[in-house]
């Protein structure tokens, strides 16, 4: 079904959400992975897990690159998000890394803590006791600089302009989260076609995304 030409980009989705925060290596890839996941409403990347005040990319101190998600628990569960977390670390689960790329689950409530610890226990068996993932309460989240937000999408400057994407929407736009995944092949063509009208893309915009999705699908998400 072709989308109409007189449409409004779906930047804002006003539904109840819960928050999840994960460190999985380079946060560009995670932003694309979760952004195109059904049930994830918004994504933003940043720094957390440490004590250094006001970290920046070139001076993280003891913080880690993380992704913070707003998700709809009626569509996707925290346990399903944990499954994605364990399955998609760029640098592996047992590799010793500098603090910037630490494997990390930052929980927002006791329910998340219990689920994280239970899944960690299972993974520790699979990893022969070599698992390096940390579990800790979520503290202050410091958003990364604008150029890190929706990094893959921002490489398509004409598309960004055409949907009215500016710095104020980089961390809040539902459409931006989706496109940041679809453009690198995440989510798949079937899901995209099911969503395209709802997302408010014009026929020209949708065809551009469709071509990029088909070209990149299955290509991996390495930063």
Automatic annotation (TrEMBL):
Residues 19-160 form the Peptide methionine sulphoxide reductase MsrA domain. Keywords: Oxidoreductase. Belongs to the MsrA Met sulfoxide reductase family. Its EC number is 1.8.4.11. Residues 164-211 form the Selenoprotein methionine sulfoxide reductase A helical domain. The lineage of its organism: Eukaryota, Metazoa, Ecdysozoa, Arthropoda, Hexapoda. This is peptide-methionine (S)-S-oxide reductase. One of its GO terms (molecular function) is peptide-methionine (S)-S-oxide reductase activity. Pfam families: MsrA_helical (PF20939), PMSR (PF01625). InterPro entries: Met_Sox_Rdtase_MsrA_dom, MsrA_helical. PANTHER family: PEPTIDE METHIONINE SULFOXIDE REDUCTASE (PTHR43774), PEPTIDE METHIONINE SULFOXIDE REDUCTASE MSRA 2 (PTHR43774:SF1).
């Amino acid at each position: 079904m072709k989308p109409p030409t007189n449409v409004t980009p779906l930047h804002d989705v006003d539904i109840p959400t819960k928050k999840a925060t994960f460190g999985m290596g380079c946060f560009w890839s995670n932003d694309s992975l979760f952004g195109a996941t059904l049930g994830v409403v918004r994504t933003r990347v940043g720094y957390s897990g440490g004590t250094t005040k006001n970290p920046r990319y070139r001076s993280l101190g003891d913080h880690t690159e993380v992704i913070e998600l707003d998700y709809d628990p009626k569509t996707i569960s925290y346990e399903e998000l944990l499954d994605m977390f364990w399955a998609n670390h760029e640098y592996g689960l047992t590799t010793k890394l500098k603090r910037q790329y630490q494997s990390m689950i930052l929980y927002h409530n006791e329910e998340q803590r219990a689920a994280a610890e239970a899944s960690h226990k299972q993974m520790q068996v699979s990893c022969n006791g070599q698992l390096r993932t940390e579990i800790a309460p979520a503290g202050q989240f410091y958003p990364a600089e604008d150029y890190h937000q929706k990094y893959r999408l921002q490489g398509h400057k004409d598309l960004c302009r055409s949907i009215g994407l500016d710095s104020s929407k980089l961390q809040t736009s539902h459409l931006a989260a989706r496109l940041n995944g679809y453009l690198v092949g995440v989510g798949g063509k079937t899901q995209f076609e099911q969503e395209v009208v709802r997302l408010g893309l014009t026929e020209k915009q949708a065809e551009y995304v469709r071509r990029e999705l088909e070209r990149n699908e299955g290509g991996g998400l390495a930063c």
